[in-house]
Design brief:
Blueprint: E1 11-17, H1 27-36, E2 42-49, H2 51-62, E3 70-76, E4 81-88, H3 89-99, H4 103-118, H5 126-142
Parallel strand pairs: 1-2, 2-4
Antiparallel strand pairs: 3-4
């Protein structure tokens, strides 16, 4: 008898671009990165926004009046899991430059980070942060990217 491999989690995804900010990844890249982070079936919208929308969402839902790199909204935790991952293009670009990271590596990290949040991972405690960072690093390595928590010299 031949053992069959477990089915890979499936992603149903929509990509929305609410900004014309330069340097955005392609749809193919976004979906590749999102699929790599899947631990279960998921239906997600990946929305790329400008600073104004990123700031408004962060203020409304987190009480923080500034744009942030990625926000995740879970709408249904049943199968498939449903939610949105909002990526703020100017913030991601500025962080990549400030941290000396390749833009695509930082975009990949933010997509993976958002998808892991969607699937219930968090970094509110030191233990949660350690687990999430290890997962992110492992997923990014499978995509050919370096550890995002080790800044290059």
């Amino acid at each position: 008898m031949t053992a069959t491999a477990p089915a890979r989690p499936r992603l149903q995804a929509a990509v929305q671009r609410a900004t014309r900010a330069p340097g955005q990844p392609t749809r193919v890249q976004l979906l590749r990165w999102a699929r790599a982070a899947l631990l279960r079936d998921c239906a997600a919208t990946l929305r790329i926004v400008a600073e104004a929308e990123g700031r408004a969402l962060n203020a409304r839902y987190r009480g923080r009046d500034y744009p942030t790199n990625v926000l995740t909204f879970v709408y249904d935790s049943a199968d498939p899991l449903e939610g949105d991952v909002v990526l703020c293009a100017p913030v991601i670009a500025a962080e990549a430059a400030a941290q000396g990271k390749a833009p695509d590596a930082h975009w990949a990290h933010m997509v993976v980070h958002g998808l892991l949040h969607l699937q219930g991972h968090d970094h509110e405690t030191a233990r949660e942060a350690r687990v999430m960072e290890q997962l992110e690093t492992r997923v990014l390595a499978t995509l050919g990217y370096p550890d995002p928590y080790r800044l290059s010299a």
